[in-house]
């Protein structure tokens, strides 16, 4: 097992920027300089924070050590960091459910999963025999790093309550 | 080496046919109805021809009950698999070991259901027990584990039933339903008239239980009751279609890891090494010092399984 301190994780940082040219670049530089890998930037122009600034959400990957350095560097650069360090859902797992999905209230199944530790981000349903018959669904669930087994346990438990069959991936993330 | 063959079905007949090619001699062979015994070596071709044309009772004029007491160095136990007390296979093994004879099995029953009993008898005997052919037919899985040392293998998984794999891979490739493909498999002789042993996952589970016993090295005994088993009968075509859209497919996977034995349909990447097609079997071994090993090939069939049996005979002391 690798040292958790060396493990790259996904983080979300929420910043607020003054609406001036060059502000966004000034905020992103410390991230790259301190070993962060930028995944996405959501720049909400048009939305303003209560203080009249522009909210920006940055997703990045870094080791926990480096992430601490990034936040420190952002603050030293005068960037207002509203929220940092909240670990995002960063692992995905795909499962199939088979059975009377529609009759057993699919949306209730999804709510139950959400309540139990599995946010469903994508769903495909196939019911070639009609909704009264056995159908299949492919679910992509997001889960926190290292929590795939918990999410699968949640899927099993919800499926059992509804008498549905689960086809699990062989390995977390489906890599085998 | 002189061989006594208990069971003259597909596998037993192939052993009898091929034994000479490997430098061995068959001195006794028996089915339920009759036996042929000759300490100087049976004319196996003639005996099998009689069985084929006139029926099992005509394989020879000896009593099957006398085979265990006949002259031989190794007993080849290839009677049909039975669960629970694994009889009559277990008693055949017992009788041979008590006479200090070697035993080579293709019958999974005794090694899956009474592993500790067989090993205890072996300890008391000058005879040795080998059972390569019980797991994945022609593929040298157990001898690889033995060579690597079971203690250095951290997990084993794979596709251990050709019938179930044929059905799932045909369903995925042709978009056909389970019943349709099963009927086709029966026509081709890939599935038996009663396919339950294969499609319910029992056969794959027995092989996994044997793997678990070998990997546990006597620290724990596994039987079928320790395995979590699901079959493929209620996997609909729609599930395979949804898997395919996502670059995956469904295979009946047996897994031995962390003290657990599990068999069931699982999602695997469509192009992974595990996703073999047709009746091919594959076993993946996770090793401590050498990463992953993939062993694949034919997991069933007369000459294939006989090859594994005769390889075991060659390994005997």
Give the helix/strand layout.
The complex is a heterodimer of chains A (176) and B (317).
Chain A lengths: L8 E9 L5 H11 L3 E7 L10 E9 L1 H13 L3 E8 L3 E9 L6 H11 L2 E8 L8 E9 L4 H14 L3 E5 L7
Antiparallel strand pairs in A: 1-3, 1-4, 2-3, 5-7, 5-8, 6-7
Helix pairs in contact in A: 1-2, 3-4
Chain B lengths: L1 E5 L3 H9 L6 E6 L4 E3 L6 H11 L19 E4 L11 H10 L3 E4 L2 H6 L1 H9 L5 E2 L10 H8 L4 E7 L2 H13 L3 H10 L8 H4 L2 H15 L10 E3 L7 H9 L2 E10 L2 E10 L10 E8 L3 E8 L3 H14 L2
Parallel strand pairs in B: 1-2, 1-4, 4-5, 5-6, 8-10
Antiparallel strand pairs in B: 2-3, 7-9, 7-11, 9-10, 11-12
Please provide a brief summary of the model.
The complex is a heterodimer of chains A (176) and B (317). Chain A has helices at residues 23-33, 64-76, 106-116, 148-161, and strands spanning 9-17, 37-43, 54-62, 80-87, 91-99, 119-126, 135-143, 165-169.
- The spatial strand order of the largest sheet of chain A comes to 2-3-1-4
Strand order of the largest sheet of chain B: 3-2-1-4-5-6
How many alpha or pi helices of chain B? 12
Strand runs of chain B, count: 12
- Which regions of chain B contain 5 or more consecutive residues with pLDDT less than 50? none
Helix content of chain B: 25-40%
What is the arithmetic mean of pLDDT of chain B? 96
Report, as a whole number of angstroms, the end-to-end distance of chain B.
11 Å
């Amino acid at each position: 097992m690798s040292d958790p301190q060396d493990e790259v994780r996904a983080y979300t940082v929420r910043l607020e920027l003054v609406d001036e040219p060059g502000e966004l670049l000034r905020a992103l530089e410390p991230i790259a300089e301190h070993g962060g890998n930028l995944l996405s930037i959501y720049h909400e122009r048009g939305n303003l924070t209560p203080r009249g600034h522009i909210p920006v959400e940055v997703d990045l990957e870094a080791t926990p050590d480096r992430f601490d350095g990034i936040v420190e560097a952002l603050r030293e650069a005068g960037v207002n960091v509203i929220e940092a360090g909240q670990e995002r859902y960063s692992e995905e797992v795909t499962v199939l459910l088979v059975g009377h999905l529609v009759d057993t209230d699919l949306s209730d199944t999804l709510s139950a999963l959400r309540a139990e530790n599995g946010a469903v981000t994508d769903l495909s349903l196939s019911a070639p025999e009609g909704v009264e018959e056995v159908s299949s669904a492919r679910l992509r669930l997001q889960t926190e790093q290292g929590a795939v087994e918990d999410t699968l346990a949640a899927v099993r438990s919800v499926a059992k309550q509804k008498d549905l069959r689960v086809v699990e991936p062989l390995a977390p993330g489906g890599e085998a | 080496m002189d061989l006594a063959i208990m069971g003259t079905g597909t596998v037993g007949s192939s052993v009898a046919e091929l034994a000479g090619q490997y430098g061995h001699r068959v001195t006794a062979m028996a089915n339920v109805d009759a036996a042929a015994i000759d300490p100087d070596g049976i004319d196996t071709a003639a005996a099998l021809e009689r069985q084929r044309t006139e029926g099992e009772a005509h394989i020879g004029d000896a009593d099957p009950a006398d085979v265990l007491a006949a002259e031989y160095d190794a007993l080849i136990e290839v009677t049909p698999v039975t669960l629970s007390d694994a009889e009559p296979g277990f008693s055949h093994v017992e009788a041979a070991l008590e006479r200090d004879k070697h035993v080579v099995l293709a019958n999974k029953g005794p090694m899956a259901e009474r592993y500790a009993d067989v090993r205890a008898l072996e300890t008391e005997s000058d005879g040795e027990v080998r059972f390569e052919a019980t797991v994945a037919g022609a593929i040298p899985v157990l001898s690889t584990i033995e060579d690597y040392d079971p203690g250095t293998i951290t997990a084993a998984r794979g596709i251990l039933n050709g019938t179930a794999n044929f059905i799932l891979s045909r369903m995925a490739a042709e978009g056909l339903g389970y019943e349709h493909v099963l009927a086709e498999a029966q026509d081709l002789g890939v599935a038996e008239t009663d396919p339950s042993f294969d499609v319910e996952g029992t056969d794959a589970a027995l092989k996994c239980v044997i793997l678990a016993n070998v990997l546990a090295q006597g620290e724990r005994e596994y039987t079928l009751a320790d395995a979590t088993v699901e079959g493929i009968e209620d996997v609909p075509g729609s599930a395979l279609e949804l898997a395919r859209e996502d670059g995956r497919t469904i295979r009946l996977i047996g897994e031995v890891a962390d003290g657990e034995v599990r068999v069931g349909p699982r999602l695997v990447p469509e192009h992974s090494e595990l996703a073999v097609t047709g009746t091919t079997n594959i076993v993946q071994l996770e090793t401590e010092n050498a990463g992953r090993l993939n062993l694949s090939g034919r997991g069933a069939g007369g000459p294939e399984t006989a090859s594994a049996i005769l390889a075991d005979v060659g390994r005997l002391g």
